[in-house]
Amino acid sequence: MSRRRDLERIELALRETATVLSSFFRSDLKVERKEGGDPVTEADRAANEVLMRLLPSDGDGWLSEETVDDPARLRARRVWIVDPLDGTREFVTGIPEWSVSIGLVEDGVPVAGGICNPATGQTVLGAPGHGVTLNGMPVTTAPRAALDGAHVLASRSEVKRGEWERFREAPFRVEACGSVAFKLARVAAGLADATWTLVPKHEWDVAAGVALVLAAGGKVWLPTGGAPSFNRPSPKLPGLIATSAALADAASEFLAAEAGAARS
Fold first, then answer.
1. Residue 163 is inside which H or E element, if any?
2. Rounded-to-integer distance, Cα 222 and Cα 228, Å
3. Which residues pair with 221 in a beta bridge?
4. Which residue of 84, 151, 169, 176 is 20 to 30 Å from 32, comparing CA positions?
């Protein structure tokens, strides 16, 4: 299957899922709690059904936050890694910081992605070698090369817990934002300079965003060093850092120094 065909399939799935989710947004949803305390609603499940119907072809693997994990995915070369509704807390409370996240990986490498935030009307779509678009217009990561004045996106939950207090005197501007997928999409589209997580993330949280940042010319790495790989038996990453290519060296040096200071 050609990559263009993959992108067309992602775009269709995003559009149809966005329509379903928009019918639930700001409605009186019953919120349940998964094991571990994360919220889930009928909107999450409805979105998952749409994605399962539209995305996998014969032989494709499947990994979704809202589907019981099937180890058969580990034998598949192509795997769809999706979060039908990333940012359920924001969705339930009416904050427009949630998204549909669709990533496609081949042999563990992200090769295409799409992230749509229906509340803001933004769809970011792309694949390494094919570039990235925001609502159909070509975009790239931002050109900023220094952290001074940089626009860094932080997890709304992490900020609320006080975990970003360590960056109070940092030279960059921090914006709290829900949905890690949406944050990665904004970096890929050049709407922010960087984002990173201070806690582990599941593959479905970030697979699409990693594909987009790389396709837009940005850099992505783990806090432990090296590039993330996907479709692993335990689909959880220790965290993630994503920046424009220009900012990568400065961000890496800053975060390494900050980690060293925290250990001392």
1. none
2. 6
3. 241
4. 176
